[in-house]
Amino acid sequence: MRPDGRAPGLVIEDGVRIGEGVSFGAYIVVHAGTIIGDGCVIEDHAVLGKRPRLASHSRSRGEVGDLELAEGVKVGAGAVVFAGARVGAETIIGDQAFVRERSWIGAGSVIGRGSVVDNDVELGARARVQTGVYLTAFTLIEDDVFIGPGVTTTNDNTMGRHGPETPVAGPVLRHACRIGGGAVLAPGVEIGAEAYVAAGAVVVRDVPARAVVMGVPARVVREVPDQDLLERWR
User: Fold this and answer.
1) Are 146 and 128 in contact (CB under 8 A)?
2) What is the pLDDT of residues 51-85, one digit of tens each?
3) Cis peptide before 208 (omega within 30 of 0)
4) DSSP three-state, residue 232
5) What is the DSSP pairing of strand 92-93 with strand 104-105?
6) CA separation for the pair 65, 68 (Å, rounded)
């Protein structure tokens, strides 16, 4: 690593590509292989391109690759974005957020303060992930999804009591669905397009498109009305 004079305490390894007009805060570390697009803003104490340190039983799969930040990405203070992640244009990674290897975040999305995007998560464009959310490994989230603060997703029904041959699967969140604050989504459940999961619900089975569910366990109580569909708010 070598100090870089563009900002106090900035350290950049060899093999980093930096676009035009990138802004750096203080005490940032950028690891080898990181690609930073034009106009990105990297705030104080962020770490970019960190390589994972995996336990022997880790379910993280495949090659890691390089970190790529598209143009106009903003990485908040104290955030850690791992090697192998792909972050789309104009996305905001909030303060102290944690984005792991092989995750993919679509353009124009927001990852809230202190939220975790685990390995191998696919997150579509214009998604809004609020503060303190945990997106477990192998979760699939389509475009325009809203995830409220404190939501937890899970991917292992046995909680570690299985062999390495048993796959784990996170939830699938279809286009424009909305997940209320503090909800818990069980492994492998599918939330249909434009569905609405109420705050604090525990979802243990699939939710149909446009269904409103609430409770523990979550149950369907009505349908999302036409006036609440995403097309009315664009």
Assistant:
1) yes
2) 998 766 665 666 778 999 999 999 999 999 999 99
3) no
4) helix
5) unpaired
6) 9
Q: 């424009």: which residue's tokens?
A: 176
In this prediction the pTM is 0.93
Please tell me the distance from the alpha carbon of residue 214 to that of residue 222, in angstroms, as a whole number. Answer: 10
Residues whose CB is less than 8 angstroms from the CB of residue 53 and which lie 6 or more positions away in sequence, other chains included: none
DSSP state of 228: G
Q: Is the dihedral of CA 150, 156, 161, 167 positive or negative?
A: negative
The pair of three-digit structure tokens given for residue 77, joined into one six-digit string: 């203070």
Residues facing residue 214 across a β-bridge: 219
* pLDDT tens per residue across span 150-176: 999 999 988 888 887 788 899 999 999
Are the beta carbons of 30 and 16 closer than 8 angstroms? Answer: yes
- Residue 175 tokens, joined: 């286009």
Residue 69: strand, helix, or coil? strand
